[in-house]
Design brief:
The chain is an all-beta fold. The protein is 2% helix and 40% strand. A hairpin with a 5-residue loop joins strand 3 and strand 4. The chain starts with 6 loop residues before the first strand and ends with a strand.
């Protein structure tokens, strides 16, 4: 059916010659006026060793197809005069073994702060940047957030105004909750961390997690045994950071 403003995910065979599975992901009601006004974007996909595939992206739509028992099954932000904020989403699909087999949606959840109860200037946006998956089927998502109450389980959270802060979250295989979640950046006064961009995460065989992106030097980006000290001026540079499997310890950051 006609569904403008939806994300999509497509699975080809190994030769790229046959389309095995293709679906839209967005508002299931094509006549809903909010679909055009608040579209859904896909930004990354990852395949785990069991061939489940994981999709992440961003949406301002309150009616994407979330699943029962999901970590955040409902859209959490609308404020009069501000309209809909953007939330990240994560969706996991079962393996595709052939055209006849298709795939099914294992889970789908929003990912972001609650919004609404924070400072009036807090527009509470989340923008996912990418996704990775490990052998157990956990999903790792990076992105940028301005939500004062983005769900954080390890490290500091934003208590008031959040700007230029990135996030790294690990979601369990069923999508029912966070294994852990942390903010990426130097939390300065007022919560401003000066991370301008962050890329997709990477996970090694020991479940250490790697992120890279762009940060402003004087924003106090945390360093651990760096190979380069930041310039003493307000200028962006590239960062690379390695987290341990708990997400609570930076093993290396430069």
């Amino acid at each position: 059916s006609y569904n403008p403003g939806a994300a999509f995910v497509v699975v080809f065979d190994a030769a790229g010659a046959n389309l095995l599975y293709s679906t839209l992901f967005g508002d299931q009601n094509p006549s809903n006026s909010s679909t055009n006004a608040n579209p859904t974007y896909g930004v990354g996909v990852a395949v785990d060793p069991s061939f489940n595939f994981h999709l992440t992206g961003n949406t301002g739509n309150p009616e994407i197809p979330t699943t029962a028992g999901a970590f955040q099954p409902t859209y959490n932000f609308y404020r009069a005069g501000y309209g809909n904020a953007y939330r990240s989403f994560v969706a996991k699909f079962s393996p595709v073994t052939g055209i006849a087999a298709g795939a099914h949606l294992t889970y789908a959840t929003y990912l972001g702060g609650t919004g609404g109860a924070g400072p009036i200037w807090d527009d509470g946006n989340e923008f996912a940047a990418g996704i990775a998956a490990d052998a157990a089927g956990n999903a790792y998502v990076t992105g940028l957030t301005t939500s004062y109450d983005f769900p954080v389980t390890v490290g500091a959270s934003c208590s008031s105004f959040c700007e230029n802060i990135a996030f790294l979250a690990k979601i369990n295989p069923s999508g029912s909750g966070l294994v852990w979640s942390t903010l990426v950046g130097g939390l300065q006064t007022g919560g401003n961390g000066w991370v301008n961009n962050i890329g997709p995460p990477r996970v090694d065989s020991a479940n250490n997690v790697y992120v890279t992106g762009e940060a402003t030097a004087l924003g106090g980006y945390p360093l651990v045994n760096p190979v380069q000290t930041p310039p003493q001026r307000q200028q962006p540079g590239i960062f690379a950071t390695m987290y341990d499997p708990s997400g609570g310890t930076m093993l290396f950051s430069t």
